[in-house]
Amino acid sequence: MATVTLQNVRKIYGRNTIAVDDFSLHVEDGEFVVLVGPSGCGKSTTLRLVAGLEDVTAGNVYIDGKPANDLPPRDRNIAMVFQNYALYPHMDVYRNMAFGLKLRKFPKEEIDARVREAADVLGIEDLLDRKPKELSGGQRQRVAVGRAIVRKPKAFLFDEPLSNLDAALRVQMRTELGKLHARLGATMIYVTHDQVEAMTMGDRLVVMRDGRIQQIGVPVQLYRRPANRFVAGFIGSPSMNFLEGELVRDGGPAFSGDGITLPIPDCQRDSLSGHVGRRVILGIRPEHIRYAPAADAPGESEDVTAKVEVVEPMGHETWLYIRIGRATCVARVSAEPVPLVDEVVSLAFDLSAVHFFDRETEAALLPDAPE
Ligand SMILES: Nc1ncnc2c1ncn2[C@@H]1O[C@H](COP(=O)(O)OP(=O)(O)OP(=O)(O)O)[C@@H](O)[C@H]1O
Ligand SMILES: [Mg+2]
After folding, report:
1. CATH placement of domain 241-358
2. For residue 226, how far is its CA from the centre of ligand 1 (angstroms)?
3. From the CA of 37, how far away is ligand 2's center (Å)?
4. CATH 2.40.50.140, the chain: domain bounds
5. What is the DSSP string of 255-295?
6. Residues, Cβ < 5 Å to ion ligand 2
7. Protein fold of 4-228
8. Ligand 1 atom nearest to 45, measured from its CA
9. Pocket of ligand 1 (CB under 6 A)
10. Measured between alpha carbons, how far is 131 from 359 in angstroms, rounded to an integer?
11. Where in the chain is the domain with CATH 3.40.50.300?
12. pLDDT tens-digit profile of 161-187?
């Protein structure tokens, strides 16, 4: 297995489509890194640059510390599994997995050993003589991964490999890929636009937008300390609520905007009091809005009156779409009581979990934002 390093990589398609820009990332040997971001943000292009299927416009790619910009794909020894992993329909599972090795003229015994080992790892030993059309979606997906495993590549690249599967199977395959990663100790770069998949699978996440890295970190770090409004809104479901306003002085420093005023929490008071007058966005996650009264110490939460617009019972909790001042927010509250639409409820904002972003740059206002 190997490290993969991208250094200030840029990819321009045609004259002026900047697909990837100033992309720097070092993937450790054996690490599972997930690239996540909305459609068109450059995830697939980044993988293709690592695999050598595209040339970089600028910057450098290193595999195992060695410059790889000029290495053709076959000499990089990197396996890529795509969303559309077209298996050969006329070949059985065994031959599908063996095919690549056969082309590379591996000895028959070596091919057989590798195919059987991969089948064992993936739990598809019993399916070796089936044709792809005789397999379920999840089984086909396993065969596609098997084709990559038999090559014993330096690193695996996965480009949304689960997006053709139904929800239940995705969750199952997610766990299986996690186990596979543990078992092979392999370096893996995994692309998805699904933030739940990203959060649950990656050792580290790379959040991308418009070809650029927004933030790199372990999942919980991105959740707790998003570097900007985009990451804050992208990680977490339902999304963080945002209120637009400014920092004012109201006794102590306070946020005022969208028809409400909230005191600045004690933990952020020192660092924010210097920013009074600044136009900011306040961010609060749905899970940090609860029914009042909250059992917090004074100064840690603030009660807010809200009008219920939509009630979505989830069973274990309820999602409330509420009007607070001029803003519509989502709150994840306890399953009981269930309020009526148009009812006015009293909710508590957990102030220790509030985020602030600059309204112009959208960068998080504090490097040491709430934990
Ligand atoms: N071969 C190409 N020629 C020209 N432009 C391309 C080409 N491939 C991708 N692009 C453009 O580069 C940008 C990044 O595309 P890319 O496929 O890397 O995005 P992505 O993050 O994988 O998106 P998705 O989630 O939809 O797969 C897009 O604007 C896309 O239109
Ligand atoms: Mg893509």
Report:
1. 2.40.50.140
2. 25
3. 10
4. 241-358
5. EEETTEEEEPPHHHHHHHGGGTT-EEEEEE-GGGEEESSP-
6. 44
7. Rossmann fold (3.40.50)
8. 18
9. 13-14, 17, 19, 37, 39-45, 193
10. 56
11. 4-228
12. 888 778 888 888 888 888 889 988 999
